[in-house]
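Figure 2 data, in text form.
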Amino acid sequence: MTGQALVLCEHRPDPQGGWELTARFLHAAPATLRDQLERAGVGGRPHPDDLSLQSRSELLFQDEEALDTTTLSVTELHAVQAHAPPDEWGNLHAWAAFMYALDPSGEQTRLIVWFTEN
């Protein structure tokens, strides 16, 4: 696969409020990440309806169609790591650490993931 894996981190500072985009990540090996998501049983899920305005804009104004979308909690991210070889853990650990830094419980953060062909 020659596309990109785009990962947005959203945070909800107020549990009763809306989500906010806090970070953008790219993954160097999109095919590897896609495989790990599938093996963990969390790949290919539609994005939630309550995406932040910034995340909706990212999806709307990108050049390529969003493929194989999914949303991950920090717990699900740990499940993905179980299907990754140790040399792939760096990104996953960094993403989880960022999520925990925003919310130590991990309940008010999520990753919005999609892939593009080019």
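Caption note: The CA atoms of residues 19 and 50 lie 7 Å apart.
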